[in-house]
Structure formats: C-alpha cells, structure tokens
Amino acid sequence: MKKINELFDVEEDFKVSSIHSDSRYVGKDSIFFCIDGLSVDGHKYIEDAVFQGAKCIVYSKPLAYKHRDILYIKVNDVLDELNRVADIFYDYPSHKMTMIGVTGSSGKTVVALMIRDVLSHYLKVGYIGTNNIEYAGVIEQCPYTTPETIFLQRHLNDMVKREIKGVTLEVSSHGLALKRVDGVHFDMGVFTNVYEEHLDFHGTMENLMGIKAKLFSMIDEKGYAILNSDEVRFFTMIKDQIQCHLLTYGIEHHADVMARNIQLFIDHSEFDLYIHEERRHVSLPVLGRFNISNVLAVVTSLLALEMPVNQVVESLSYMKRVDGRMELLEHSQSFHVIVDYCQHAKSYEKVFEFAKSVKNNGRIIAVFGAPGKRNYNKREQIGKLANIYCDQVILTAEDSREENIRDICLDIQEFIEKPVSVIIEDRRIAIEQAIEIANQNDIILILGKGHEQFMTSSIGNEPYPGDKYIALDAIHRIFEGDEEDELSSVY
Question: Full-prediction pTM beyond 0.70?
C-alpha cells in the first residue's frame, strides 16, 4: 500500500489500496488508469470505476464531468504513467531480481524455460510466458505471452516476497509495442530470430525488427545482449545501437558460441560446441537444427551470467524437454509422434525439414489446421509446405474462433496436391486417425496446439485434453490396450 503523494506530485496524502486499468476490478481507495487501448477506451468506464470505489482517476482526454471528492490527474500518456506508477506501487520488483527477457518470432518459450531449468539447480528462478507463470510452487495460466503491466508487476512483487532471485520473461513484439514491459528493469536480453509475423499489427518487417530492438535499448551498460549472428538483418541493424555488453551465438556465422558438425536424429541431436573457440562434443535430447540454435542461446546466456565454461557444459544435462515444443512422445510402437506448437509458417517449414531429414523408409503424416480470424496468408503457406514435405495430411480444428472449421481446412487444402489430404473437423478424431494409419518408421506430426489444453471457439476457450494426451491414449487403446475402451478416458 502506498500514499497518493508517493505516486504523484500532489498535496493529497490518502492511502491507495490498489491500481487498475480494468474498471471491473476496481475496489475501494484505488486508482483507475484510463487506457485508450486497441479496442477499448478506458475513459468510457470512469463512472463505473468511481462507483466501484476508485479515489483517483488518471486520464488524458477531456472529461465532461468530475466528481467533487475524486482526485483527477491529467497526463499526456496514461500508459506511460501506469508503467511508472506500477513499478513504484509494487516496490520496484524487477530491480531486486536478475531479469532475463527473451524475444524473437519463435524459440522464446524453449529458451526461457531452458534457462530457468538450468539456473534452478543453483537458485530460485521464476518464469513468465506462453506456457504459464511458474515460481516457488506457484503455477498460473498467463493471459498473454507477455502479460499486461499491472498483472506483471504484481507477480514480480510476489516473486520477490517468495525470495525468487531471477526471472526469465518471454517478451513478445506485441508486449513491447503495447508498453507492457516499459516498467521492467532488464539485466539481459536474448534474441532468437525474426520472421514475417504479425505484419497486420506492425506493418513492415522494419517496424517489427525495430520493436524487437526496443528490448535491447532498455538494457544499461552493465547488462548483456545475447544476439543470434545467423539473423544477419537484425544483427546488422542493432549491433551498433546497444549500450550494453554483447555476446553472440550462431551456426552459420562466426560467434562467441557456435555449433559445428551437427548430426540430427529422431530422438536427439549431436554437435561440436565451441565456446570462445574451445570445443566440446555434446549430445542432447532436443530435435531439429533450430533447437540447437536455441541451446546456443541458453549457453551464451549462462556465460553472460559469469558461469565457468566447464559448469556451462555440465549444466546442459539439466535442460529438459519443453511441453509441446518438438516433443517426441514416449511409447512402445515402431512409429514416431512429435507434438509441436508451430505458430508460424516458417516454423512449419523447419519442422517438416527436420522430419524429412530423419525419416528412413517411413512416411510423414501431418495433423494440423489454422487459427480463425488470423493471418489468412498462413493457410496458403502451410498448405504449400505440406504439399512439398508430407505424404499424408489430416486437416482439422485449431482455434477456429468464429470461423467455420471446414472452410479454414478447405482454404489450406486448396494448395495441397501431391499428398493425400482429408478433413476431419474433430481434432481428437483426427489425431486418432493418424495413429490408426501409422506404419513402422512413420513420423506423425501433430502441429499447432503444442501444450495447450483449450480450444478457442466463438464462445471462448473450451476445455481440450491436449494433443499429447489424446495421441498417447489412442496408442494405448489401439495397440496396447482394449480397443473397446472409449476415447472419453482422457477427457
């Protein structure tokens, strides 16, 4: 709890119990910030906030009426003030922990969780991102990849209270553009890659790269930027702009940390790891060349944290497979099943390339769809990719929102000519069908949902067992158990 004059330069000194940007959660003696957002203008809800008990209104637009006993504070940018005030209100939590921000089109979750897993062997570390918020036994669903300011600062404050020493935070391009992390003090920024994504929001690739570069402009001279030297466009753009220390990693280009002589297998990868020219051969349970790049990002981050090289190499054994990220399911059958989140067309291409590189005489059977009301070009792109790499395709539901599932699948199917493709709208049945037709050495790719256990439709998020659990249950019933068991056993 703070007094109002600790948060603003005002004469009043009443106590502030909470701060809000959503009028539905306003309580007695709180501050309401009128955020003019993408779809909602908080100025329209001032009266609701006052009725709920707000004692102070922070606003930027002209107001038709002001209550006599309410403090109104006009500012140029309410969002900037919210970031400043939230940081103070929650006692500057990010300054009290080592904050590691991870940004990029893909790989954020894998890198953030791998860093967390390694560091957790030495100290108490938290994670905030796509998969969850996790710290000190707390596991909570995260509303966005990068949560909004108040939600974020509140949880960082709770982490401090629970003696968390470090945090890995996924920092999305939306999170940066919408100023969700402007009040966070970062000690390190890690960059993975950049694809043509969210251009409906950012406009151009230059804008997208510019907003990702914002993370590194927030790091002072004592901190570190961990950059992927293989991402030449971004690296060239940012290398002369940063004020902090710089460490690099790469596969194709020279860097402080490199991977050479890469060998890919269906269940692991092997390569020579070079750390400042010192070579170590490593074998890790990660799949795909792109995940080796993610491992290099983790290794470089550990070096920036002043971990000795021998300890860095030893710590690679602490890296765990991440749920729903190139996750090879464990079962006793002679075919393989991989579940991956796969949110971008470029991600589909990399997964397909990996499957092709490790398959023997088997087939690639892919199960996927496309989200509704989003990135319509992606449907053409992934359809064409499936046409090149896959032997059989089952198109199905994936967060249809308000669109018709069959129409989405037909949009994709239009670009699939060579492989056999069918539409099975129920994702559970689609996955089961892929399992049923699998032969020895086949690789089944279940793409698009990853770890998620919900399906977004026109009525909101509906419970969904998860790709992994549906696939394992189908394998058990069809090949290992009683075929009369019903699919409902997993949900």
Answer: yes
